[in-house]
Amino acid sequence: MKRTLIKTIALSSLLTCSAVALADQSDYKLMVIETATAPQPVEQSFNNCALNVKSKNYAQAETICTKAIALLKQSEGPKMKLRELTSFALSNRGVSRMMAKNDTAGLSDLYEAAQMADSAMVSHNLTRAKEYLSL
């Protein structure tokens, strides 16, 4: 019961938040979740991933992004919103991997993110990665 209540609170928080980019047009874009309430585990992992990429802690960012993806897969709620947030988390992890010179894994994450949800920010990151790799 308590676990279900926590998931419901976390999900309702996710539904009222939005993702924003943390970069200019020429660089990769990192998505974060803005929320007016106390951050839940999904939001904390999601935002800490972006923060660690921004701080150039790429190994830590990859670990935290992976945790955010796992938490999103366990969440219940509107499938479209969960797919979009998972896509953003995959994109953030892909950027982290690209910056750590793990190009194959990074590109894989970005392709998966682009297939999962239609997002200009995710498309931008995939295009940026392909340009970087001269694909």
Please tell me about this protein's structure.
The chain has 135 residues and is mainly alpha-helical. It has a single domain, classed as Tetratricopeptide repeat domain (Serine Threonine Protein Phosphatase 5, Tetratricopeptide repeat, Alpha Horseshoe), CATH 1.25.40. Helices cover 69% and strands 6% of the residues. The protein is built from six helices and two strands, in the order H-E-E-H-H-H-H-H. Strands 1-2 form a two-stranded antiparallel sheet. Helix 4 runs antiparallel to helix 5 (103-116). The model is unreliable at 1-19 and 21-25 (pLDDT under 50).
Determine Rg (CA atoms, Å): 14 Å
Strand order of the largest sheet: 1-2
Number-wise, the strands total 2
Tally of individual helices: 6
**What is the helix/strand order?**
HEEHHHHH
Annotated CATH topology: Serine Threonine Protein Phosphatase 5, Tetratricopeptide repeat
Structural domains: how many: 1
Which structural class do the helices and strands define?
Answer: mainly alpha
User: Mean pLDDT, nearest integer?
Assistant: 83
What's the CATH architecture name? Alpha Horseshoe
User: What is the C-level CATH assignment?
Assistant: Mainly Alpha
Fourth-tier CATH superfamily name: Tetratricopeptide repeat domain
- How helix-rich are the residues, as a percent range? 55-70%
Main sheet characteristics = 2 strands, antiparallel
What are the low-pLDDT stretches, counting only 5+ consecutive residues below 50?
1-19, 21-25
Strand fraction: 5-15%
| First-residue to last-residue Cα separation | 50 Å
Overall form: globular
